[in-house]
Amino acid sequence: MNSFESSLFSNQTITLMKLLYKPVLFLSAMLIIAIQLRAQDPHFSQYYASPWNLNPALTGVFNGRWRASLNYRDQWNSILNPVPFRTYAMAYEYRANVINDDYAAFGVGAMHDEAGTAKYAQNKVHLGGAFLKKLSGGPRQASHYLSAGAQLGLGQNSIDWSALWFSRQFDAGTQMPDYTAANGENNANASSKPYFDFNAGLLWYTVFDNGGYFYAGGAMHHLNSPVISLIQNNSETLYSRWTGHAGGQFPLNDYLSLMPGALVMRQGPSLQVTPGLNIRYSNNDYNELAVRAGMFARIANKLNKSMYCDALTVVGMLELNRWTLGLSYDITLSNLAIANNHRGAFELSLMYYQPAEKRARVVCPRF
Questions:
Q1: In 3D, which of 253, 241, 310, 313 has the Cα closest to residue 277?
Q2: Has residue 217 got a pLDDT over 60?
Q3: For 5-36, b where at least 16 C-beta lie within 10 A, e where not — what string?
Q4: How far apart are CA 191 and CA 335, in angstroms?
Q5: Which of 105, 110, 182, 286 makes a 20 to 30 Å CA pair with 355?
């Protein structure tokens, strides 16, 4: 090989390495996830603004006839643009009075999550219901409720194989990948079979006479451990996820309230704890206008190792009568901050409540 051929070979090798960088990096990351973590659920930092995905028992826990919610999360755009991790969710719930102060609620929700260059996607649609039973309470007394809920749905996971290319498709003449060439991969274009998914949860809450409230609940997701493998003849299953959460609103005066909250999630080897506090100001009027501001910490483990603070979430929310708009941003504190300069995830949430036909005493928390 002469010097010209050697130089040409070196240039082609460098070009090939550059072109292979992203797909190889992605596939390596996916392999590590598949081996060590199997699959994890997407989640929202504004978990309280996505009640459908937090706990099936939260279905119908609102004041009004129906509630609609939208959630959007954009993560690590600073280092993965134009294909960051993105999560979309929407839900609709309707509740009806059954007898006295007991309620039945029904709903439907959907979620789409995609990650990385190959757009590894998780798609889920659930139907759900809950029954809200009044335990005690009356005029000028705290009301106590217990809610039990469940969800049954379908899911499917997939990869956009057209967004990837492999070494067999590299054309040395053009120094570019040839997407029309066969990639030679046995499992290309594979996706998981549609699977059934079952979730269930419980919630207890109390509403005080001064408008304050406190709640605590727990849920189990993927109780049936559905098979989610992208490879044929494989029995890879989705870890069940258990969730515990609590929070409330404690008025300081007619205008200011403290809204602490905490979330604990465990899925396979992954453990996450999210404590935080919002401060709420309200004009305390019939057409209520309120603002919230606060901060939450996301504390997680490193594959069964010690816990550490992964990120801080700064939150701002606006309540205008029937509408609630939330904006938040995750500030990365982990070692990833070296690469993304502390730029984590952006979230947007929007909820709308349709009031009941007759105005009644507040009997539910407002998330």
A1: 313
A2: yes
A3: eeeeeeeeeeeeeebbebbeebbeebeeeeee
A4: 33
A5: 110
| Predicted structure pTM score | 0.83
Extended beta strands in 208-255, E state: 213-221, 241-251
DSSP letters spanning 146-187: EEEEEEEEEEEEE--GGG---GGGEETTTTEE-TTS----TT
Give the N- to C-terminal CA distance of the chain in Å, as an integer: 70
184 vs 353 pLDDT, higher one? 353
Q: Residue 94 sits in a domain of what CATH number? A: 2.40.160.40
Whether 362 is covered by a domain: the verdict is no
| In contact, 311 and 284? CB cutoff 8 Å | no
User: Does any domain span residue 366?
Assistant: no
Annotate 15-37 with DSSP letters as a single string.
HHHHHHHHHHHHHHHHHHHHHHT
Rg (CA), the chain: 24
**310-347 per-position pLDDT tens digit:** 899 999 999 998 999 999 999 988 877 777 777 788 99
Containing domain of residue 120, as a range?
3-354
Number of structural domains in the chain: 1
